[in-house]
Amino acid sequence: MSDTIFSKIIRREIPADIVYEDQDVMAFRDLNPQAPVHVLFIPKKPIATLNDAAAGDADLLGKLLLAAATYAKSEGFAEQGYRTVINCNEDGGQTVFHMHVHLLAGRRLIWPPG
Ligand code: 5GP
User: Where do the domains of the chain lie?
Assistant: First the structure.
């Protein structure tokens, strides 16, 4: 897969407001937030889209969601609620082809989304 802006953030070649990092996962604030809290959880392993995740990535995908939930609890908005979103390809609205989980919180989010 070709290099993306997120790979550059992982390598710290461009700045980001990193809120969480471990061996497998990094999380940073979205540059163009759609809610008071808008954090992106990404695997350090470059997987372009959810379609490209394989059976061997099951633990990694789980770690992304657990990292998001742990962050929500640690920041105190887990009980109030939040939304996690994975956009995939054109109709899903994906613009950065290094898969990521959006964590949105801090306002009432409408459903269904547009
Ligand atoms: P997608 O549309 O692929 O689901 O989400 C990509 C997200 O990455 C968008 O919400 C966009 O605002 C965010 N984004 C794009 N470029 C950058 C960047 O350089 N830094 C950060 N922190 N977020 C970015």
Answer: 5-105
Q: Say yes or no: CB of residue 4 within 6 Å of ligand 1.
A: no
The reply to whether CATH 3.90.550.10 applies to domain 5-105 is no
Quick one: average pLDDT of 69-97? 98
Residue 94 CB–ligand 1 contact under 6 Å: yes
Decide if 98 is catalytic: no
User: Considering the entire predicted model, what is its pTM?
Assistant: 0.98
Provide the residue type at 102 as one letter: H
* Long-range CB contacts (within 8 A, 24+) of 5-10: 5/96, 5/98, 6/40, 6/42, 6/46, 6/96, 6/98, 6/100, 7/46, 7/98, 10/42, 10/44
Ligand 1 centroid to Cα of residue 102, in Å, is: 9
* CA angle (6 as vertex; 4, 8 as ends), nearest 5: 80
Band (pLDDT 50/70/90 cuts) for residue 114 is confident
